[in-house]
Amino acid sequence: MAIAAVNGDNRRGKTALFLFCCGFLGAWPHWVDPGKNLLPAITLAIFLGGYGLITVLRDRNENHLIRDPQIKGLKDGLPSVDVVVAARDEENVIERLVTRLLQIEYPKDKLSITIIDDGSQDQTPYLLEELSQNFSKIKIIKRPRFSGGGKSGALNFALTKLHNDWLFILDADAQLHKDVLIRSVVYAIDGGWSAVQLRKAIVNRSKNKIASLQSMEMAMDAVIQSGRLASGGISELRGNGQLINRNVLDQCGGFNEDTVTDDLDLSFRLLINKFSIGLLWNPPVEEEAVDSVSALIRQRQRWAEGGLQRFFDYWTVLISRKLRRTQKIDLTCFFLLQYALPVISFMDCVASIFTASFPVYWPFSLVAFSVSGLAYWKGCMRDSEGPSIPKATIINIFYGILYLSHWFFVIPLVAIKMTLLPKKLIWKKTNHIGI
Predict the structure, then answer these.
(1) What are phi and psi of 179, to 5 degrees?
(2) DSSP for residue 430
(3) For the chain, what is the domain count?
(4) By 3-state DSSP, what share of the chain in percent is helix, strand and coil, each rounded to 5?
(5) 50 plus 76 within the same structural domain
(6) Residues 343 and 281 in one domain
(7) What pTM was estimated for this model as a whole?
(8) Dist CA 38 CA 361 (whole Å)
(9) Whether residue 54 is found in the same domain as residue 102
């Protein structure tokens, strides 16, 4: 039986339990024998450090490349594809987006392009109307602004009007290679993937240091994801540049309108229903990075909240027999590194202040940052068909590791907010300025 989207019951209680457990683990060593208080940190460092090292080392470039012979072999039997973009207040980028979409190389009788105007209040509706009159290939779907469900609601609304074999979902700021779709589709078919996530590349990485660090972060993320997949774990969707089999999506219940990150939620439902996600390194989908600290923190709060929501929503199934042992190990290690470590470290620092002692979880954090540095190096060393990635210099990797420390502030903050405040689902989109 397929597992559909859940409504996220009792997330506040689950988050409170998560905070309590992490808080206890972070503070408890400060009240035990000083000769033994490093034992939990060293144990976690060895276990999770080993997992992280194996994951990064198992990443292989050939695992996510598509070659011309594969394209030629399947070109005549390509499936039909719906390219879909959910847009709200995107006047700065919508014209460029349409230009790029019209340049996509794919059999015309098997390609449909749809843009959802989700209640835009700027010039987006007028620009789309003009563009649709000039280019009949572009279909516009309009939805009232307060229809609910955020981006997931907009995509579900469009699904009732789309009937092709695959969906290629993009954000409004996406920039593409002309052959990205055909290469993605061939990669999916050739690899037997139910969905494919394109590597995300940053087009404005030279604007400032924040954008440059995000470019490195996207490369690191792709390395880790492909390594997890190669180790028997999982990879995940990232919202922009995701190709999904329509039949598979329908079996999983469409997009979850009760979560703030539709891509992460769908990734878990695909996993639980035994559908696999592949990662394609080249060509990437190109997008804008946020270029200020405040915008970065807002974006990461949404990502953190959605990431925690999916674990709390599906935890009973994640520990069931539906998943392989390697997948359970992968998810456990990823959860501990991505979400538990920042909260444990935060409480470790608080406890060290109250007890006038030195933080005890530094071995755990040191190993996590070291593995991240190795993933940075591998990602930055790899060729990119899209925007260039910063060079893998010692100083760049140092700044990249320092940059990752923002999660040690964001994760605890979001967990506290999720515990204390009722959730109001609002589409907090990233503002795009057009690069």
Answers:
(1) -100, 15
(2) P
(3) 2
(4) 55, 10, 35
(5) no
(6) no
(7) 0.91
(8) 7
(9) no
pLDDT of residue 64: 59
For residue 144, whether the previous peptide bond is cis, meaning omega lies within 30 degrees of 0, is no
Classify strands 138-143 and 166-170 as parallel, antiparallel or unpaired.
unpaired
Give the pair of three-digit tokens for residue 30.
Answer: 């400060």
Helix, coil or strand: residue 425: coil
Q: Are residues 367 and 352 in the same domain?
A: yes
- From CA 382, how far away is CA 49, in angstroms rounded? 23
Do 371 and 408 lie in one domain? The reply is yes
Strands (E), 44-128: 81-87, 111-118
Cβ count near 288 (within 10 Å): 25
Both 37 and 87 in a single domain? no
* Amino acid identity for residue 68 in this structure: D
* DSSP letter, residue 80: P
Is 220:226 a contact under the CB 8 Å cutoff? no
Please give the C-alpha separations between residue 378 and each of 45, 198, 279, 423, in angstroms, as whole numbers.
21, 17, 16, 38
**What's the CA gap between 104 and 282, in Å, rounded?**
16
- Per-residue pLDDT band for 435 (boundaries 50, 70, 90) equals low
pLDDT tens digits along 59-69 = 876 655 666 65
CA angle 387, 169, 327 (to 5 degrees): 90
Alpha-carbon gap, residue 264 to 80, rounded angstroms: 25
Q: Does some domain include residue 398?
A: yes
Q: Which residue has the tokens 């903050």?
A: 413
Q: How far apart are CA 79 and CA 181, in angstroms?
A: 11
Among residues 393, 397, 395, the alpha carbon closest in space to that of 375 is found at 397
Q: Quick one: pLDDT band at residue 428, thresholds 50, 70, 90? A: low
Element of type H or E holding 111:
strand 111-118
Q: What is the average pLDDT across 174-199? A: 94
- Per-residue pLDDT reduced to its tens digit, 349-401: 999 998 888 889 988 899 999 999 999 999 999 999 989 999 999 999 999 99
Give the other-Cβ count within 10 Å of 105's Cβ. Answer: 12
Do 87 and 174 touch, CB atoms closer than 8 A?
A: no
How far is the C-alpha of 373 from the C-alpha of 397, rounded, in Å?
A: 6
